[in-house]
């Protein structure tokens, strides 16, 4: 049999050599074609798993009985927290200039009589928010809990033991081998930082689903003293949460909403002014609070500029990059040049811009510096007005806004940018893989036609930072 195999192999080889001699043109066409097909197959197989997609997301919308208007907020603060008249007047000025409307949500604990600010009440607030978001996400996607292989939970300040990730695993009976992570203490930029973490995890775990959940507790973070520098968080932070499902499954690429294109992180914690501008500490009476001082705007602009300088070459067309470079060269080498710095027009590369709704001054400055229109800033301003600052989840209420307006078309580019204590700034760039129609599971669904509202007359908070220190 061995001789037969050798003879057959030799015979086949001779036949092949004769075919090459007889049909040289066929050989010259066939071999390069086979090489190209083989290369394309290997390339597609190697890159299919590296592409990461957002299947869908769900924003939590609290119950209507949790809404609070500005006057009711001040009345309850006066009655329950015993603030002095100067503090209440200062809080009123913050609320007038914050950009928040009269239908934002606070926790049930803060609406109870008397206020319940216990750890149990804070945990109940967080659980209600994250369970509401996850339940809706699972209903929207149809993904089973046992299919989820990665879990990341994010809460900017509030922390419990067992962690939120363990709470989620227990509630939904997730797999015993799930790779779970819990992030806390990283401020309002932590949600986008977590997307970078999920991105890295999906690069090494093929064919997986990743659940990312972000929220914050307003109950646990109430400041009870009269130090003005610690009052801003009381006034602008509100209840919210979002759950996201990401995947690298090639089979899901046609049904996902967005493809992840870039993640960029920056921080300036090595600078004292940036490091100390948002700080958790106790006042002289022992009341714990989050100090936000006048250096916040300096730190925000410094860190955001650093982040944007990294994002720019990734997204800007060559024409804008050339103008920016030429401007730098002229200003640096032409003595006495009075040429103004050139701000690249990001609207030429970005269709939808979603900055964290940290405050009106930052939104105004970003719009001016980056060249975005009022319509492109509409989602962030309306989110601040309708839902307040929901910390890590705010930027997803903005995405939900443009989806509800029917503005997300296939191929458009979305830019999310968030910033927080440290000081840190993170950007995430997405590309829509399909046009998004209005769906029933959207926090704006019942009222989207009422927006936008006019918020142009609202004042700035910048002078209040100076007054608070």
From TrEMBL:
Keyword terms: Acyltransferase, Membrane, Transferase, Transmembrane, Transmembrane helix
Pfam family, one: ACP_syn_III_C
Key word ATP-binding present: no
Top-level taxon: Eukaryota
CDD domains for this protein: CHS_like
Listed pathway(s): Lipid metabolism; fatty acid biosynthesis
Signal peptide: none
Broad class of enzyme this protein falls into: transferase
InterPro entries listed in its UniProt record: 3-ktacl-CoA_syn (IPR012392), ACP_syn_III_C (IPR013747), FAE1_typ3_polyketide_synth (IPR013601), Thiolase-like (IPR016039)
Annotated ranges, domain Beta-ketoacyl-[acyl-carrier-protein] synthase III C-terminal: 349-431
Enzyme Commission no: 2.3.1.-
FAE domain segment(s): 51-332
Reaction(s) catalysed by this chain's protein: a very-long-chain acyl-CoA + malonyl-CoA + H(+) = a very-long-chain 3-oxoacyl-CoA + CO2 + CoA
Cellular component, GO annotation: membrane
Keyword Acetylation: no
Transmembrane segments: 21-43, 181-202
Gene Ontology MF annotations: fatty acid elongase activity
Record GO biological process: fatty acid biosynthetic process
Family that this chain belongs to: Belongs to the thiolase-like superfamily. Chalcone/stilbene synthases family.
Cited PANTHER family: 3-KETOACYL-COA SYNTHASE
Protein's name according to its UniProt entry: 3-ketoacyl-CoA synthase
Organism the protein comes from: Nicotiana attenuata
Name of the gene encoding the protein in the UniProt record: KCS2_1
């Amino acid at each position: 049999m061995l001789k037969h195999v050798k003879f057959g192999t030799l015979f086949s080889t001779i036949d092949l050599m004769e075919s090459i001699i007889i049909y040289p043109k066929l050989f010259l066409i066939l071999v390069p074609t086979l090489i190209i097909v083989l290369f394309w197959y290997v390339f597609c197989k190697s890159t299919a798993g590296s592409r990461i997609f957002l299947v869908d997301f769900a924003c939590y919308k609290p119950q209507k009985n949790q809404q609070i208007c500005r006057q009711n907020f001040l009345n309850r603060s006066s009655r329950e927290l015993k603030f002095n008249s100067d503090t209440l007047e200062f809080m009123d000025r913050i609320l007038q200039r914050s950009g928040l409307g009269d239908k934002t949500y606070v926790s049930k604990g803060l609406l109870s009589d008397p206020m319940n600010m216990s750890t149990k009440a804070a945990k109940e607030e967080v659980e209600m928010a994250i369970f509401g978001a996850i339940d809706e996400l699972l209903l929207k996607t149809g993904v089973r809990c046992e299919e989820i292989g990665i879990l990341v939970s994010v809460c900017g300040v509030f922390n419990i033991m067992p962690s939120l990730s363990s709470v989620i695993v227990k509630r939904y009976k997730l797999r015993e081998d799930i790779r779970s992570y819990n992030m806390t203490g990283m401020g309002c930029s932590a949600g986008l930082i977590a997307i970078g973490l999920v991105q890295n995890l999906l690069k090494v775990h093929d064919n997986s689903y990743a659940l990312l959940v972000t929220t914050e507790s307003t109950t646990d973070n109430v400041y009870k003293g009269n130090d003005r520098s610690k009052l801003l968080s009381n006034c602008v932070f509100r209840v919210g949460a979002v759950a996201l499902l990401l995947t690298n499954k090639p089979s899901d690429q046609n049904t996902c909403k967005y493809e992840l294109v870039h993640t960029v992180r920056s921080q300036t914690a090595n600078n004292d002014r940036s490091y100390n501008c948002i700080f958790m500490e106790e006042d002289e009476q022992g009341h714990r609070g989050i100090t936000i001082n006048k250096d916040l705007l300096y730190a925000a602009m410094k860190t955001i500029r650093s982040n944007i300088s990294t994002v720019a070459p990734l997204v800007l067309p060559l024409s804008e990059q050339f103008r920016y470079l030429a401007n730098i060269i002229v200003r640096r080498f032409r003595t006495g040049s009075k040429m103004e710095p050139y701000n690249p027009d990001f609207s030429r590369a970005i269709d939808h811009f979603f900055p964290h709704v940290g405050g009106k001054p930052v939104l105004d400055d970003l719009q001016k510096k980056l060249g975005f229109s009022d319509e492109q800033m509409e989602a962030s301003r309306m989110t601040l007005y309708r839902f307040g600052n929901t910390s890590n989840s705010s930027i997803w209420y903005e995405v939900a806004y443009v989806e509800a307006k029917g503005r997300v078309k296939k191929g458009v580019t979305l830019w999310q940018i968030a910033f927080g204590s440290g000081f840190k700034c993170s950007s995430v760039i997405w590309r829509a893989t399909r046009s998004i129609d209005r769906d029933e599971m959207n926090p704006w669904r019942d009222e989207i036609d009422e927006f936008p509202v006019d918020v142009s007359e609202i004042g700035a908070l910048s002078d209040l930072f100076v007054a608070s220190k």
